[in-house]
C-alpha cells in the first residue's frame, strides 16, 4: 500500500498536525503531573514548601538550601527538608510547564476554531487548579481541598485526552475512514458506558478521599475489614470540611470500607461493560479489562503489604489510565468509524 498519498491528505493542514501533536504532548504531561501529585501526597511532601509559588521564598530548592539558616528563621515551625521540598517543587515545575502548553493549545484552538468551548473550560479549570494548589499549602492539606486538587488534575487530563481523541478522529476521517451508521451501536450501550464513566469518577473521588484522610490502612486484611464483613464504623463522619488527621478510628474505617465497596461496584460494572463492548471496540475493551484487573490487584496488594510507596503511586497512575480507557470507549461509541481507520499509517494520527 502506498502510504504517501494518505500522509499528504492527513497532514495537508499544518495547523491540524501541530494541534494534534501538541494535544498529545499535553496529555502525556498531564498524566505525569497526576502521578507526581500522588507521589508528593504519599511522601508527605505536600507542605515540603510552606509558601507558594516559591519554596521558602526561593524559586529553587538549591537556592533555599544555600540560605538554609535564613529560611529556617523565617519558618521556625517548619524547617527545610530538602527531599520533600524537591518533590513538591518538581511537581510545581511540571504543572507550570503543563499550564504553558495548555495556553499554547488554547491559542491554536481558538485561532483555527477548534474545540473553543472545551478549551475555554479547560483554561478556566487550569486557573482554578493553580488556586487549589496554593490553597493546598495555605490551608495545610485540608482534605476537601487536596481531593478537589486531585479531581481537578484528573479533569484536566480527561479534557486533554478527549480533545486528542477528537483530533485523532478527524485525522482518521481525512485518512479515509467513514462514520458507521448511528444504528450500529445501541443507545443502551452508550448509556451503559456513560454510567460506567460516572461510577469510575465517583470511585476516583473515594480513592482520593481515602488517601487525603490517610485511611489507606484503616482496614487490615482482605476481603474483610479487621476480621469483619461489615465493620463497626462511623459513616456519618466520613465527609465534611474537617482538617487533616481529624478523622479517627471508626471514621477512617468507614472511609476505607466505602472505597472498597465502591471498587466492587465499579469492578462489576466495568467488567460487564468490557464484555458487552468487545464486539464493537475490541482493543479498548481489552485495555479496560487489563487495567481493571491490574488496578484490583494493586489495591489488594496495597492492603496486604502495607501501602508500599511504588504500589500506592501505581494505584493512582492505573486509575488515571483506566479513566482514559473508559473515556476512549465512550468516544468510540459516540463517534464510531469503519474498519477503514486501519488505513492510516502508524503514527500519522498520533
From TrEMBL:
What's in the GO CC field? membrane
- Would the keyword 4Fe-4S turn up in this protein's UniProt record? no
Q: How does this protein lie in the membrane?
A: Multi-pass membrane protein
Compartmental location: Membrane
Keywords carried by this UniProt record: Cell membrane, Disulfide bond, Heme biosynthesis, Iron, Membrane, Metal-binding, Oxidoreductase, Transmembrane, Transmembrane helix
**Example GO biological process term?**
heme A biosynthetic process
Q: Which GO terms describe its molecular function?
A: metal ion binding; oxidoreductase activity
Stated name of the protein: Heme A synthase
